[in-house]
Amino acid sequence: MRIPLLLLSAIAVPAVPAMAQDADVEDDRNVIIVHGRGLTQTPATPAYDVIELDRNTVTSTASGRLEDALGNVAGFQQFRRSDSRSSNPSAQGITLRALGGNASSRALVLLDGVPLADPFFGYIPFSAAAPERLDSIRITRGGGSGPFGAGALAGTIELESADLRTLPLVSGQAMISSRAETELSGTIAPRVGDGMAVVSGRWDRGQGFYTTPDDQRVPASVRAKYDSWSASARVVQPLGEQVELQLRGLAFEDNRVLRFEGANSSSEGRDISARIISRGPWQVDALAYGQWRNFTNIVISSTTFNRSLDQKDTPSSGFGGKLEVRPPVGGGHVLRLGADYRASSGHLAEDGYNASSGALTQRRFAGGLNTDLGLFLEDDWTIGPVTLTGGIRADRYTISNGYYRAYSAAGALAVDNQFADRSDWDVSYRGGAMLQATETLRLRAAGYTSLRLPTLNELYRPFVVFPITTQANAELRNERLEGFEVGVDYTPIEGISFALTGFDNQVKDAITNVTINATTRQRRNIDAIKARGIEFSAQAEIAYFTFSGSLAYTDAKMRGTGAAADLHGFRPAQTPEWATSATISYRPADNTTLAVTLRHVGAQFEDDQQDDRLPAATTVDLFAQLPLAAGFSFIGRVENLFDQTIITRNQGGSMDMGVPLTVWGGLRYGF
């Protein structure tokens, strides 16, 4: 069992008083202030549908996991309802606005400006982004690609790391669940020179729960065991009065067992990034990063319970960066111009087996390279109570070096496909307007387009979830979204606010798994997925009580012709109409919190044919933090209080379930 050295160092430091640190790190001689963040948001940011989650919200969930915190925003949706303890990592694709998906993310997730998605699959490694390392999360539903980058099809989720504004010198947490599962994390955040450093580690492990219903269990059925760790280090140093350097490293490993004995999966990664921020008259954000990932997975037959597939090696890498410049143009304008680049390469090596005999039948190899160079220009113009914004983006993309080869067990070449390289330009835009009509009322409207390239996984890798084989498709076209929205923000009194947004979004050439016959699907572009709906949110702070709630209703329909004509008018797979989340918290004193969260996700379908239904699910979670002594607090958490059955997969009646009633207890220091 490996526990990262960074985690050991973080929890082994002698306990010291968790005194609050200065809001900024200053050198008394030169008055150098280190911020540790990117450039400030531009004036027109609220013209789009933006929700922000603060640190209290992010670190006060019943599961203690990132996807649970994101679930506070109605419309946030994973491909499946499972969390990152009991799902296959490659199924952790996310989207917003019920735009569907096929396990690849239609929303762009950034950690301190760096894309977090796996370069090969496009899934989000949630276990690598521990909530206690974050200060805030900004979620933009819709909004277009703009200066964010290609991949922001359904929206953008920006994770902002915590620093000395919110972190004491030493903090940590140790938890144990009613199933004897454990969660251990620690962080050190010292001043270093004129700047700061943050070193953090986390280790989660447990026997898990049975995802298989009682009446479907067999001797080979096992609990969803998991064992994961992650470690990160971040250093921020000034290079002058208005320039700073930010360095970050991340390492993680996640091992899981799903449904049957031997159905092991693993994901691992190593990320590094360097960022220079200049806050002078010419503001600059210059970022470069590298990522190295791998994934393995063993598929066990649900009839013979023998190994049928061994995805033994899927190494991938992502390299890129971004340069944004804001020149001092004046006149109420904030001008942004720049470029971003991302290259994603990866390769798959897997072995197929005869599920009855256990004999090797075929060895398969696939992979390729996707690149995207984006150039963007955007301007915000404030004229009294009106803020206007508009921008244009041009992407030069390539899909190249694609191949798929298969060999017989004896080593004879059976398939040798070399796919033609493709490249082109794609232009997108976004624009909006915001009117501060009164001190309490703000009106907004926006229109936008955005782009997503098919992932290497969608292009080249077939997969099996028995009894269904899903074929890859090297001819997939880019997805393109066109959308507009109107909204109103109302703050009748201080501490109470409401937001209402109506939207109409359409993903053209949407990639989905199209049923060919009873045992075969293929990833294909269909004409479009069209989603119309409303999003409502409310916030209130009254004395010691806070309320935070959001609701989303989406009427999403597929549009298909030709081979996909039978999908026309159907709702996309894994897409509910209704989703809502509401949390009431009571905070009578520092380090004291009592909170209850209600969530509801409407019914949805497993597949494109709407044959297998996933019933609606309503859950209640609890969280409590009570101060003890010397900086320590007791933490109590309850997941799925009423033990509601959550169906996460249903293929022909073969089902998987989500997390049951789970009770956690433990200690927290320095939060």
TrEMBL record:
InterPro entries: Beta-barrel_TonB, Beta-barrel_TonB_sf, Plug_dom, Plug_dom_sf, TonB-dep_rcpt-like. GO terms for cellular component: cell outer membrane. Its main location: membrane. GO terms for molecular function: siderophore uptake transmembrane transporter activity. GO terms for biological process: siderophore transmembrane transport. It comes from the Bacteria. It is a multi-pass membrane protein. Belongs to the TonB-dependent receptor family. This is TonB-dependent receptor. It comes from Croceibacterium xixiisoli.
